[in-house]
Amino acid sequence: MTHCALSLESVTYRYSSRQAAVNGLDLDLGPGILGLLGPNGAGKSTLMRMLATMTRPSAGRITWNGIDIAREPDALRTSLGYLPQDFGVYPALSAREFLGFLAAVKGLSGAKARDRVDACLSMVGLGDAADRRLGDFSGGMRQRVGIAQALLNDPALLIVDEPTVGLDPEERMRFRHLLTDLAGERLVILSTHIVSDVEASATSIAVMTTGELRFHGTPEQLIARAEGHVWEWTIAPERLAEVRQRFKLCASLRRPDGIRVRVLADHAPDADAQCVAPELEDAYTWLTGAEAH
Ligand SMILES: Nc1ncnc2c1ncn2[C@@H]1O[C@H](COP(=O)(O)OP(=O)(O)OP(=O)(O)O)[C@@H](O)[C@H]1O
Known about the structure:
This protein is an alpha/beta fold. The chain has helices at 44-51, 73-77, 95-105, 110-123, 139-150, 169-183, 195-199, 219-225, 240-246, 280-288, and strands spanning 6-13, 22-29, 32-37, 59-64, 67-68, 80-83, 157-161, 187-192, 204-209, 212-217, 230-235, 248-255, 258-264, 274-275.
């Protein structure tokens, strides 16, 4: 059985002496899919780069199966697959050529490399497109090439940073299913600011804002945080601006009898408002800022 115990102890990262981009994070992770959620600038990419051993924490410690990765980065690197946010491909190469090149960089050669490249391309559903130029691939296909390259060494830890940016809804859905299929015994860390990216697949969720960990637990536990704070009622269309100004508006739907609004609030926002069951998106919004309203 694969060992994949990743532990963060008071992990902090500072780009300068000003505010820490990642501030005192504690997390214990094992097999499954962790959805790392946070708005832009929350510190997700900085954290991902530390986990991928691209940078070291300014303070604190990250261990992989008990080994400090700042001291012995190779202990993790040999088990790591990483798809960075700014992953680029060589447009003139075919998918097979590109992966063959990366396999060689990772020390695979000959028939073993060829078999692994083909296996990885078929795992991400690109078996039929293996000999097409990457320059002709769609955004979603390119991201799948990114996953295929991350899988070359059959990693126990797969880190994917904002993989669905720029994908259309169908590609996005396909990508989510792919990550679910790949999870198995691995630890997959998927960073995103889009809640629906992790809704169906994440076994646990971590939420970061301004460098701090605000939540870590199951999706159900996150949803429970917003219990009693989500309200719906129907208003006359001319009241929409006022409701939007007074409350955190999650959704609005035009109907024949007015506009059905869904807001986050501590107490009933209106005599007609009904308290409804929260969804993950509501809970994330509640946690990351609705309190400010
Ligand atoms: N190279 C850098 N030098 C200085 N500050 C940086 C650098 N990279 C990121 N930051 C700052 O660190 C904080 C965290 O950024 P980070 O990119 O990790 O967040 P993020 O959650 O990944 O957001 P995004 O989704 O926009 O990448 C931000 O305030 C950002 O401005």
